[in-house]
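Help needed: design a sequence for this.
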C-alpha cells in the first residue's frame, strides 16, 4: 500500500470524475490520501474536509484525510476570522495537518513580510491544536532565500512543539533536507523527481534515510514524466515511488512500507 501524502482532491479539475479518480487510485494500490485544504482562496480551506466526508466509508476508495491552511500567496487574506476558521477545522478528527503553509518567493504574490507573518500566525494555531504542518517552500531561482527564512522561523516558532511536519514537493539541496530532518520533518517527493532534468534532486534523494521519506502527487499538478502535461491524479504516485526505490536501491514494496510507516509515525496512528 502507498500513501499519497499531498493531493488537491477538492480541485475543480476533478468536478466531473472525482469518484472515478479515487477508484483508480484504490485500484493502483493507494491506501490513503492526504487531501490538501487551501482552496483557491483562504475561504475555501474547508474543501478537503468536505471531500473526505463525502467519500470516507465508501468501498474501493482510499482512506482520506484532510488538511487546512492558508497558502503563502493568500497570506494577505489572513485575518482573525480566517484564523478562527482554521482553528475550528483543525479540531476535526479528519483534519490531521495544517497546510500547505510556508513561503513562496518564486512567484510574484504576497509580500515576503506578509507571508512570514501569515506563516507564524498559522504555526501558533497548529501548535495549539497539536497538528503537524505541511510546508510549501519555493525560493527565487538560483537562491535559497525562502529556505533560509523558513528554517529560521521553524527553529524559533515550531521546533519546540515537537510536532514536526512534511516538506511537501521537496526541491532543495541536501543541506535543506538535512536541516528539515533534524527539525523532525519528513521529506516528500512529488512527480518532479521523475523529470529528465531533475538529476540534482535525484542525487539529493539518494542520500536520504528511508525513515525520513514520503511520496506524493501534488495532483492535479506535477504529473510524473510518463504523463507530463496531463492532469495528475493520486494513482500515479506509484511512478514517483518506483524512481525513489531505484535511487535508494530497495524494492518498491520497501518504499511503500517505509513511507506508510513514516506517515503513521508523524500523525500518531497505530495503523489505518
Ligand atoms: Zn499542493
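Sure. Designed sequence:
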Amino acid at each position: 500500500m502507498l500513501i499519497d501524502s499531498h493531493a488537491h482532491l477538492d480541485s475543480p479539475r476533478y468536478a466531473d470524475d472525482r469518484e472515478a479518480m479515487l477508484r483508480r487510485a484504490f485500484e493502483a494500490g493507494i491506501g490513503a490520501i492526504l487531501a490538501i485544504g487551501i482552496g483557491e482562496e483562504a475561504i475555501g480551506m474547508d474543501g478537503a474536509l468536505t471531500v473526505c466526508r463525502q467519500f470516507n466509508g465508501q468501498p474501493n476508495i482510499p482512506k482520506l484525510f484532510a488538511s487546512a491552511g492558508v497558502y503563502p500567496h493568500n497570506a494577505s487574506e489572513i485575518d482573525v476570522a480566517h484564523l478562527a476558521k482554521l482553528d475550528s477545522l483543525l479540531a476535526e478528527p479528519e483534519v490531521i495537518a495544517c497546510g500547505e503553509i510556508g513561503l513562496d518567493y518564486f512567484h510574484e504574490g504576497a509580500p515576503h513580510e506578509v507571508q512570514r507573518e501569515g506563516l507564524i500566525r498559522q504555526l501558533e494555531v497548529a501548535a495549539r491544536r497539536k497538528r503537524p504542518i505541511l510546508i510549501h517552500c519555493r525560493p527565487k531561482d538560483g537562491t535559497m532565500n525562502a529556505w533560509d527564512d523558513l528554517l529560521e522561523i521553524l527553529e524559533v516558532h515550531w521546533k519546540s512543539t515537537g510536532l514536526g511536519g512534511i516538506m511537501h514537493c521537496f526541491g532543495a539541496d541536501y543541506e535543506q533536507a538535512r536541516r528539515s530532518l533534524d527539525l523532525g520533518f519528513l521529506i516528500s517527493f512529488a512527480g518532479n523527481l521523475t523529470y529528465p532534468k531533475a538529476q540534482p534532486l535525484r542525487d539529493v534523494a539518494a542520500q536520504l534515510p528511508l525513515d525520513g521519506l514520503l511520496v506524493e502527487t501534488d495532483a492535479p499538478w506535477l504529473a510524473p514524466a510518463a504523463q507530463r502535461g496531463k492532469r495528475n491524479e493520486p494513482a500515479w504516485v506509484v511512478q514517483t515511488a518506483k524512481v525513489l526505490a531505484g535511487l535508494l536501491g530497495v524494492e518498491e514494496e520497501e518504499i511503500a512500507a517505509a513511507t506508510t510507516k513514516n506517515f503513521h509515525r508523524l500523525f500518531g496512528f497505530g495503523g489505518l
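The first helix runs from residue 18 to 27.
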